[in-house]
Amino acid sequence: MQEKSSEAGQVNDKQRSICFFGEPLLELGCDTFDMLSAKVAGDVFNTAVYLKRLQLFSKNTGRAGLFTCVGDDPLSQKLLTACAQHNIDKRWVYQEKSRTIGRYAVSLDDKGERSFRYWRNDSAARTLFSRVSESVAEEIAQSYEYFYFSGISLAVVENHLRDQMWQFFHSLKSKGVKLVFDTNYRAALWSDAKQAKAEFEKAFNLVELAFVGVEDCQPLFDFNYGSAQGLISIASQFNCPNLVIKNGDKPVLYRGRHGELSVSLKPAPKVIDTTAAGDSFNSGFLFGWLSDAPVADCIRLGAETAAIVIQHLGAIIDDKLFLTGIEPVIYALKMAGEQNNERLLMPAL
What we know:
By secondary structure, the protein is α/β, with parallel strands linked by helices. It has one domain: Ribokinase (UDP-N-acetylmuramoyl-L-alanine:D-glutamate ligase). It contains 11 helices and 14 strands. It has helices at residues 43-57, 74-85, 134-143, 151-156, 162-174, 193-204, 214-217, 228-235, 277-290, 295-309, 319-339, and strands at residues 3-4, 18-21, 25-28, 39-41, 64-70, 89-95, 102-108, 114-119, 146-150, 178-182, 209-213, 242-246, 252-256, 259-263. The strands form 2 sheets. The chain has a 10-stranded mixed sheet, sandwiched between helices. A hairpin with a 5-residue loop joins strand 7 (102-108) and strand 8 (114-119). The N and C termini lie far apart (49 Å).
């Protein structure tokens, strides 16, 4: 039977708080398969960690939580320890005795581009929706304003549990929770592209905000190769009111309730490891979004956050390195916002 890890205290204020659903993984080093040196990562976990760092730096009252399942073995315990270390709410991290946590190894080329090898067949996250109920949806809705998931989150759920997953998502939305989706497509995790496309379309029709990658969607949807405009035209056919189109180092496009705009990206001074580039972009954007910042500033903060992360090795870089890099970025955005009488919830630096 499953157990849910405990979290001291009950927080009632859910404003600017977001719960992340996905599969945490142990990241093995590029040149070692030593489990003792493994670090916790995974796409939604990476985003949660960087968002929480931004919240702490800004003295923001928002919270970041994790909704997933791991085993009760020593490897899975690393996830619970990491949640505490990174100030991630772990009230909805379940434990399954017969399963464990997924693992992956990264290989990097001389440009910092990565390839992956995974071991996730026994991942407990795959079975999460066999053990959640309507009461869990109610608890999460009472604690969080937003709920975030990715294409990988969708892919790892066992096929016979997909109906339960979508029922859970719809229940959250009916209770006022705003859903956020990041495409993050990995072909190897799906039965075929047709299945992935169908699940992505369901997500686009349900969520409030979607991060849509051109590279992710190219194998799934019919648009001109590399065309962000072509993709935004397709994505706009669904019911998602806010679309953020990412296209590598090309300008980020936004179309939604706040109009339409394009924001050019400043390249990072150097590129060491792009493993968490998209994840960290999303964290910066979400921090601005939850702080009611202008969309252009959300995009810039996302891009600057990613630029800091990819200059260092690993999905989750040292917190001091991160904060040293992000402080001048936030300060500059804060000053620009004050000059334009725009609201951005930042610390008094």
